[in-house]
Amino acid sequence: MKLSGDAMKEHVTVIQWHNGKGEMEINDNGFMSNHAIDSYDTDVRPYVDIWQSVSDRMVAARQNSEPDGKTGWQKWS
Fold first, then answer.
1. Residue 44, CB-side half-sphere exposure with 13 Å CA sphere
2. pLDDT for position 1
3. Cβ proximity of 64 and 75 under 8 Å
4. Which residues contact 6 (CB under 8 A, 6 or more apart)?
5. What is the rounded distance in angstroms from the CA atom of residue 27 to the CA atom of residue 13?
6. Strand 21-28 and strand 12-18: pairing?
7. What is the mean pLDDT of the segment spanning 34-57?
8. Looking at CB atoms within 10 Å, which of 5, 10, 25, 46 has the fewest?
9. What do you get for the CA distance between the two ends of the chain, in Å?
10. DSSP 3-state assignment of 74?
11. Which residues does residue 19 pair with via DSSP β-bridges, in sequence order?
12. d(CA 70, CA 32)
């Protein structure tokens, strides 16, 4: 997924964040490099928000595909 903005990196492969500090691993045409994360809010949160959004959609899709316990019919949103 391509993101835009100064804080976004096009080729982020890994984000490591623990106890208020972290690094991003960037793949730049096959050359891997690590970069210190300056700010959770600008460098990490956008990726977490995207992950949460995709996760929420997957959960909703799974819930809608399970049969209703009372009728056995599929649930429709």
1. 18
2. 34
3. yes
4. 42
5. 7
6. antiparallel
7. 90
8. 5
9. 27
10. strand
11. none
12. 53
What is the C-alpha separation between 48 and 54, in angstroms, rounded?
10
Taking the C-alpha atoms of residue 55 and residue 61, their distance in angstroms, rounded to an integer, is 10
pLDDT digits (tens, 9 = 90+) for 5-44: 443 556 888 899 999 999 999 888 888 889 899 899 988 8
Q: Report DSSP letters for 2-66, one per residue.
A: ---STT--TTEEEEEEETTEEEEEEEETTEEEEEE---IIIIIHHHHHHHHHHHHHHHHHHHHHS
Please state the pTM of the whole predicted model: 0.60
Give the model's pLDDT for residue 61. Answer: 83
Choose among 24, 30, 18: nearest CA to 47.
24
- Residue 2: the pLDDT is 37
Asked if pLDDT for residue 65 goes beyond 80, the answer is no
